[in-house]
């Protein structure tokens, strides 16, 4: 008999969770960072959701957070007009990068040597973390606040999404636009999958998949409700999405069929991401919680335990679905 | 009714008393070579290590003693944006992120109880 999904709720934040990111797989497992309007981003163990530490120092809502592949560095973007770089092992603040407006997005290069930032001043900046006092390289062009800026194509190009309803591909060296996509409405989220060069964009009720190099559209899928974020599974067989109706949806990437939907959050879902091993996905919500969901429901992984029928279990959780 | 997947326990939440990043975790121990290393060093290095350790201990102890000496005394704080305030110092939190003060004299009035953000403080002085 098919089991019912038991999401794991990670509490601790006191305001909406607006962004989350996983690290790569490290010798100590993988990690998860969450950005929250309470100004206190948190680091958690990725497969269990166990809290590891809170990065203290921002004086305003944190809108974006990211980890480098090795989970040794973290970066955060906040409403206090700064982006900060942190030591993700000690929790110490390493660098504060002053901006002229709210910072929304931060992203490390593969080797963690450069940090990309973007925000309400409409300018994309590239900071060399080996020379933090040097002026950052600036890329201008967007006519509205930038929501997300990501490195792509082996860190030689940059993808950015802004409230001017465009997604732009930039060349890092020339800082010129290579290609541009225009939409009828603002893009709500963007995810870049280096393996296979796929770009996942959400807007309205649509989840759209593009080739990240050519910006050619691969396919679009419509969900039952307005979607704030989506994530493609590493094996590219499923994708998950969440938004206004508080639910998480799981779709078959090949057939575009809606496979499952899960209730659990008490507010709109703002962000959702698959773990690097694809075994779970994490969602962050207006309700101030993160929830971890199994990709293969019923499998023994992390804190989930596959129980054979007729076996006595000392501790069982019933979710309130 | 379909059974729910069982869980071993719930994810651990934040510690209300600190900011985490357990220095005894395997990851911390492996990735944070402190300047005070417990591993074997060459002769000259370990002498330097011990000297640095001694100096750090002295400085840390002096700092903690100043916090004790400051308790209930009038302290003048010089802060960013040319702000100078005076207050009766109460206590510091464990990570020295906030100072608890009373009767904070500010340009817009006296605040009975307040928390000063330590990162906003440039320097402070008080009479022993």
TrEMBL record, chain A:
What species is this protein from? Oncorhynchus mykiss
Molecular function (Gene Ontology), one example: RNA binding
Q: Which CDD domains match?
A: WD40
Q: PROSITE patterns, from UniProt? A: WD_REPEATS_2, WD_REPEATS_REGION
Gene3D superfamilies (UniProt xref):
YVTN repeat-like/Quinoprotein amine dehydrogenase
Q: Which UniProt keywords apply?
A: mRNA processing, mRNA splicing, Repeat, WD repeat
UniProt similarity note: Belongs to the WD repeat STRAP family.
Q: What gene codes for this chain? A: LOC110500266
Q: Which SMART domains match?
A: WD40
The answer to whether UniProt assigns keyword Repeat to this entry is yes
Any one biological process term the GO annotation gives: spliceosomal snRNP assembly
Gene Ontology CC entries for this record: SMN complex
WD repeat residue intervals: 55-96, 96-137, 139-180, 262-294
Q: Name one Pfam family in it.
A: WD40
InterPro entries xrefs: WD40/YVTN_repeat-like_dom_sf, WD40_PAC1, WD40_repeat_dom_sf, WD40_rpt
What is this protein identified as? Serine-threonine kinase receptor-associated protein
Keyword flag Repeat:
yes
UniProtKB/TrEMBL annotation, chain B:
Q: Enumerate the CDD domains for this protein.
A: Gemin7
Source taxonomy lineage? Eukaryota, Metazoa, Chordata, Craniata, Vertebrata
Taken from the UniProt entry, a GO cellular component term is: SMN-Sm protein complex
The protein here is known as Gem (nuclear organelle) associated protein 7
Per the UniProt entry, what are the Gene Ontology biological process annotations, in alphabetical order?
Answer: spliceosomal snRNP assembly
Tell me what gene encodes this.
LOC110507421
Q: Where is the SUZ-C domain?
A: 1-25
- Note down the stretches annotated as region Disordered: 1-24
**Gene3D superfamilies attached to this UniProt entry:** 2.30.30.100
Any Pfam family from its record, for instance, is: Gemin7
